[in-house]
Amino acid sequence: MLIKRFTVAGLALLFVCTISVNSYAAGSSKEICASSAKEFQKINRLKGYFPEELTDADYETLRKAGEVMKNNEQERIEKFNVDANTRAMSQVVQIHAGNIEERARGDKVGLIEDIGHSFRFLFLSCRSCHQVYKTEEGLAP
Ligand code: HEC
């Protein structure tokens, strides 16, 4: 009976420790990714529209999404990056997110196609990092 009680207490303690270790780590890359994922989905949705269906507010959403993701990677590099590989992958994400931001400011003719093109590269860039570090988690992208 006593052993059982200790086992339960031990398991509970282990559980609490696991949770706190995880939430400690979540203060890093994960939060940045969660923010980028939101922006990523906005572009993913809007790029499916015909140009004549998009409003100025939509173009602003696209521009802002690019900007936020670009800045997020800058933050990752400054705060959390430790190795050169991670840094390089962050920089590739920055390039494509920056291209989206720039393009969304420009001429509306061909804009959504160009953003779709950059978005494809962005998808692969985000993914490259997940493939290297988190293969088994099946993250999207
Ligand atoms: C430099 C490496 C790197 C880059 C670049 C990167 N990620 Fe991640 N991402 C990670 C890691 C590592 C995790 C797992 C974090 C964890 O579980 O602690 C993650 C987790 C995620 C998650 C799951 C978050 C959660 O709450 O469980 C999403 C969604 C995600 N990334 C989206 C993106 C998107 C979108 C991009 C591109 C704009 C991106 N990531 C770029 C490394 C990266």
Topology:
Blueprint: H1 2-26, H2 29-46, H3 56-79, H4 84-105, H5 111-133
Helix pairs in contact: 2-3, 3-4, 4-5
The chain binds heme C (HEC).
Short key terms for the protein model shown above:
5 helices; mainly alpha
Walk me through the structure.
The protein is mostly helical and 141 residues long. The chain has one domain. Helix content is 79%, strand content 0%. Helix 3 runs antiparallel to helix 4 and helix 4 runs antiparallel to helix 5. About 11% of the residues have low confidence. The structure holds heme C (HEC). The site of heme C has 21 residues, from helix 1, helix 2, helix 4 and helix 5.
Structural class estimated from helices and strands: mainly alpha
* Fraction in helix: over 70%
Principal-axis shape equals elongated
Give the total of beta strands: 0
H/E series, N to C?
A: HHHHH
Distance between the termini: 49 Å
How can the largest sheet be summarized?
none
Bound molecules: heme C
Range of strand content: under 5%
Low-confidence stretches: 11-26
Whole-number average pLDDT?
83
Q: What Rg do the Cα atoms give?
A: 20 Å
Please tally the helical runs, counting DSSP H or I stretches of 4 or more residues: 5
Domain count, please report it. Answer: 1
